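Work package 3, deliverable 3.1, input record:
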Amino acid sequence: MPPRSRTSTGKAAKAESAAKGLRLRKPKAPDIHDIVVVGAGLAGLAQARMLQQRGFTIHLIDPRERDSLRAPSADRRATALTPASVQLLDLPVDWLAAKGQRIESIVVDAGLAPALSEDEALRLSSGAWVVGNADLYAFLVEHTVLDGRFGQAVTGSRVEAGRRRLTMASGDPVEARVVVAADGRNSILRREDGIQRQQQDFRQIALTGVIRHEDPHAGRAFQRFLHGGTFALLPLPADDGGEGHASSVIWVEPSASAKGLFALEPSILTERMQSRFGDALGRLSKTDNEDWGQFPLLAHSCDRIIGERLALIGEAAHSIHPLAGQGLNLSIRDAAALTDTLMEQRHYGLDPGDAQALERYQRARRAETARMTGLTIGLNSLFSRPGGPLRAAAAVGLRALDQMGPIKALLEREARR
Ligand SMILES: Cc1cc2nc3c(=O)[nH]c(=O)nc-3n(C[C@H](O)[C@H](O)[C@H](O)COP(=O)(O)OP(=O)(O)OC[C@H]3O[C@@H](n4cnc5c(N)ncnc54)[C@H](O)[C@@H]3O)c2cc1C
């Protein structure tokens, strides 16, 4: 057989590789970064902003397109940010004045009487700020440099050659010396790393939304520990420059009864709300343009919140019962602790993904997360049981607490952390 000419062999090879290219696109060389934050929810954005403010360059990844991150959020919930969180997020005073409502006091009641009585209730001082989740989200998006991959989900990860490699739905991998998993409750990074978690299903659903009331809230937040679940109101900022007549509701009921109850027609549901709460704020009414959301309540905590070149923050690391309003506050403190660790590494010219450094981050977060998880599970199970001596004792305990200066001060300090 005559030898093939060099030209025809070259052409054939080119044609073959072009055909292969059609079938199998060669992935691009991975993008390599120092720090990648996976998840642009409230926790991931808070983390990215804190690090950027200290001069770090952050690569963010989220399955949503960049433009949809900038679109107004549909989250109708509000969060009570502790003074420590306000400081850690570096929220400007004029922004807080425009978008936030300071909580002057929290009125807590054990729910033994049909309606809340302020004379009988425990009154805690606070200093927390209520902000709408949508407003907070918009602030963080506006004040974070959105560099990274958007419209693409992480599908897996592994460690090789001193880096964590993230595989992406798009096929082009991303590598980092350290990856921050802020990818929420069902974190793929946590699952892929084999991190075990303990889960508790409270078999409760929270109804959340905005309610208007006849009387001004005067900065009061309310929390009723009713059997079946808590009923809480957080004061919202006045939208008309006058006194605040709207509050954010978090109404928790057992799942079995919640399904029918929360499906009731809004005016009937508002009546039921009034009967759970009483008339401390006058007549309650629902605005037509506000949707109420429903959230099944679960808590989880993890055996560890770090892996090789991996740190978990926010709901990827933990979720707690919302009765203490501390879930996001915990996440903000995760982000602050990790920021401190990464700054220390940079200060000494060390690897940001070093195992001992990540161990320090984990140690810094362990005690507080465990305390808050235990406290919220304990309070929920103590108060959500119907009747019985334990519940009555707990109610007396609340009233007795009011007389005990040092213990009350301790509770108030806990609410401010
Ligand atoms: C009813 C209710 C009331 C609450 N009230 C309060 C309160 O008053 N105070 C308080 O402090 N906290 C409160 N919380 C808790 C708070 O809302 C949450 O802690 C917080 O919103 C969770 O933020 P996150 O960023 O960790 O998770 P998420 O909001 O779930 O964000 C996860 C992000 O990761 C992205 N993502 C997911 N998968 C991938 C992937 N494979 N690749 C890349 N990105 C991915 C998602 O797109 C998303 O942007 C409440 C919670 C509930 C349910």
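Residues 1-9, 17-22 have pLDDT under 50 and may be disordered.
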